[in-house]
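Ligand: flavin mononucleotide. Inputs:
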Amino acid sequence: MNETIRKRKSIRKYVMAKLDAAALDKVRAQIESLTPLYPDISYSIEIAEKTKGMFNVTAPHYLIFGSEEKDGHLENIGFIGQQLDLFFSENGLGCCWLGAAKPQEKEASALPFVICMSFGKPAEPLHRGSADFRRKALTEISEGADARLEAARLAPSGMNVQGWYFVADNGKIHCYRKKPNPILGLMLGKMGAIDLGIAICHIFKESETFGYTREADAPAKKGFIYAGTVVYS
Ligand SMILES: Cc1cc2nc3c(=O)[nH]c(=O)nc-3n(C[C@H](O)[C@H](O)[C@H](O)COP(=O)(O)O)c2cc1C
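Predicted complex:
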């Protein structure tokens, strides 16, 4: 399995010095080279120095993700952002998705704002061993056999809820997210779709060829919403 997926973790303590221009240019180049899940959905990513909001993490830099609001745009942002999470972890930098943070200025997001991510030099260990992942068992989140499911299992999710489900079926993986509880409201519903995009990114990293489609005859899963199917392209 991708070595970074096996050892990454969220970083919440940072060296507060700003990254130098060369390091920030490398981040900008990476932003330009991302692969979307839905190529027809426009998105924006800005680098900012501040964000505001609850449960915030103090960091030298933040990414502000925005998107055109279309069916699948939240999964798309999760999928794109997780490529950056893995890039940071591979390159000696820490990061943390921030579901409750907001940009300081409305205009910090070119397209409607979706979510933030902190990043910078870590002031805590950047990686961890496999015993230090707190995750559900594969049998709780999936059925059928596919080696790529272990990478999805290790994916990060908002408040570590891991509200996803995967059905492996002869090289295809049908992807679902838990129906949001109406009492917990819109925020967690939004997070669940981003989380699923993050887990699909880990499947993408493990796939020799990757395609993602909506299948009319995908099996229904009680309590879950079908999002799409990973296929070999
Ligand atoms: C969509 C999303 C939103 C998150 N929001 C926050 C947040 O607001 N504050 C925070 O400290 N961590 C946040 N996290 C980090 C999760 O708590 C973390 O990913 C999860 O507990 C698993 O831990 P790990 O990333 O170290 O594997 C978020 C993660 C995701 C994927």
